[in-house]
Write a structure and sequence with these properties.
By secondary structure, the chain is an alpha+beta fold. It folds into three domains: 25-102; 181-297, GAF domain (Beta-Lactamase); 330-499, Orthogonal Bundle (Hypothetical protein af1432), CATH 1.10.3210.10. Helix content is 60%, strand content 8%. The chain is built from 17 helices and six strands. The chain has helices at 2-20, 27-56, 63-102, 108-115, 120-161, 167-180, 223-230, 285-329, 336-350, 355-367, 377-380, 388-394, 397-405, 415-420, 441-455, 467-476, 483-499; strands at residues 185-192, 197-204, 215-217, 234-236, 257-264, 267-275. A six-stranded antiparallel beta sheet has the order 3-2-1-6-5-4. Strand 1 and strand 2 (197-204) form a beta hairpin. Helix 3 (63-102) runs parallel beside helix 5 and helix 9 (336-350) packs across helix 15.
Length: 500
């Protein structure tokens, strides 16, 4: 029973929905319905007359019938015309509204081409085509922006994973500013207060190994002097004091350029220079503000990096003093750290190592025996062989040395060298018993330098050996030491010592 009561209501809703759907129907459907309405009355009249001809052979119709038929036909046609006119007027209104809306989206050239059309359908077609092209262009730009953002985030991630090197962040800042301002080249120059000069720090846009040696004097009453004193951004169209260029290469500075001071706590620390491309006086106030704020944040980052470098340098000098104290305390090993450093430098240069590896070797040489500060003096200076218990203590000094420097982030690259400088290729070394390829090349170098200096120095338990004898012992340790490094070392060090 409930279903029977609900059924008529459902049918009414369905019919009402179908009737209402005509209002939302397509233009083609509306036109089809209107065409039928306009045509049905004339067709009925013709059909009526045709039936009379078939049945009686003649058409019999009164004047009243003819008048009524004509009236209804005219009314139907008028109604159809009015409705059709309303339908197409909505198309015209849509075209007009579309033109007005497009004024804020399309350029004048495209709008003029569209407005030259008189046919509304053609106007709509061209408008939709222009909007589609614009959307496709926007999608392309968004995709390029996404790729740019992805590249920037990759560089940020690289910078975060390498916090010791501020150059990564400075390069990212320059790249971002250069691209954002449609420029071609940019650089960061820092201020040398003692000489009143700017010196090259970071360069973007061209490759040059000479930029970091480049200096720019801040002349009195020059544009740079104004920037230094006023601490305000300037756009420069003329040459920046004395122009400088490399042979066969583009100049460091291209004009016009934006020159922004690096200011931290009202202290001038350098400039960011962005030049070339489309930079001009027409740059907006918002862009100026963004560039200046970014320069201020850069100044803060550089200042923090300088403070961190100074602190870590102080740590290193303090720890080096501790290691030197251990070295000086034992008259037999006095000068050992310096000599090992010299030997490591000689080997590194002969092997063609880069400056960073040689610097690491020199630093590790100064600190490799730092752990002996935790070994009792009576063990360090004992005359004669050490007992088993004393050897256990002595073997702890590489681990102690590593534990002292490990908390200092800037010295982490020395941990492996200091911990393993007593390891041997055959696994007989300490503290970890590393073998063969487990021992890094820098560790192999300092091991050879350390052993050679120990053999050629006086000890409490023996006299020092001559260079020839020490060389023979190093060659006999063919299973424990890297013999390629041994031969390179002996060819230089021993030859120099014997020639003196």
């Amino acid at each position: 029973m409930k279903k029977d009561k609900q059924k008529p209501h459902f049918e009414f809703e369905t019919k009402h929905k179908n009737l209402g759907s005509i209002e939302d129907a397509s233009i083609l459907r509306k036109f089809s319905v209107l065409f039928l309405v306009m045509s049905i009355l004339p067709l009925l009249v013709l059909f009526y007359l045709y039936i009379q001809l078939l049945t009686s052979g003649k058409i019999s119709i009164t004047l009243l019938q003819f008048q009524m038929t004509l009236m209804f036909t005219v009314l139907g046609v008028a109604l159809g015309y009015d409705t059709t006119r309303r339908l197409f007027k909505s198309v015209v209104d849509l075209t007009a509204a579309n033109r007005k809306a497009l004024e804020s989206v399309l350029d004048n050239k495209t709008l003029n081409e569209i407005n030259q059309e008189e046919n509304e359908i053609a106007v709509l077609s061209k408008s939709f085509a222009a909007v589609t092209d614009r959307l496709e262009d926007n999608v392309r730009k968004l995709d390029e922006a996404r790729k740019t953002l992805h590249a920037v985030m990759q560089k940020v991630g690289k910078g975060i994973s390498n916090m010791d090197n501020i150059d990564t962040f400075l390069e990212l800042i320059l790249e971002t500013m250069t691209n954002a301002l449609n420029a071609e080249i940019s650089c960061i120059m820092l201020y040398d207060k003692q000489k009143n000069e700017l010196y090259g720090k970071t360069l973007f846009g061209i490759e040059s190994s000479e930029f970091k040696n480049y200096r720019l004097i801040i002349k009195k009453n020059s544009l740079l002097s104004q920037i230094q004193q006023n601490k305000k951004l300037m756009i420069i169209d003329d040459n920046l004091d004395t122009p400088h260029s490399l042979k066969g290469q583009k100049p460091f500075f291209e004009y016009p350029m934006i020159c922004t001071p690096l200011v931290y706590r009202d202290k001038f620390s350098g400039v960011i220079i962005v030049g070339g491309g489309e930079i001009s006086e027409s740059i907006g106030d918002q862009d100026r503000s963004l560039v200046y704020n970014l320069a201020s944040q850069t100044a803060v980052a550089i200042e923090n990096s300088t403070l961190n470098t100074d602190i870590e340098k102080t740590y290193f000098e303090t720890i080096s003093a501790l290691a030197l104290a251990v070295d000086v305390k034992d008259k037999f090993s006095r000068g050992h750290l310096d000599r090992v450093g010299v030997y490591c430098t000689v080997i590194g240069k002969q092997l063609g190592l880069d400056d960073e590896d040689i610097k690491n070797l020199q630093s590790a040489a100064r600190l490799h025996d730092l752990g002996k500060i935790g070994i009792p003096d009576d063990v360090l200076s004992k005359k004669g062989p050490l007992s088993d218990e004393e050897w256990l203590l002595m073997r702890k000094h590489p681990e102690i040395g590593e534990s002292i420097i490990k908390p200092i982030r800037s010295l982490n690259n020395l941990c492996d060298i200091i911990r393993h400088h007593h390891e041997k290729l055959d696994g007989t070394g300490y503290p970890d018993g590393l073998k063969s390829e487990e021992i890094a090349p820098l560790v192999r170098i300092i091991t050879i330098a350390d052993i050679y200096d120990a053999l050629t120095s006086d000890r409490s338990y023996r006299q020092r050996l001559r260079s020839k004898e020490a060389s023979q012992i190093l060659r006999q340790m063919d299973k424990q030491l890297d013999q390629d490094i041994v031969e390179i070392f002996l060819e230089t060090i021993v030859f120099d010592e014997e020639s003196k």
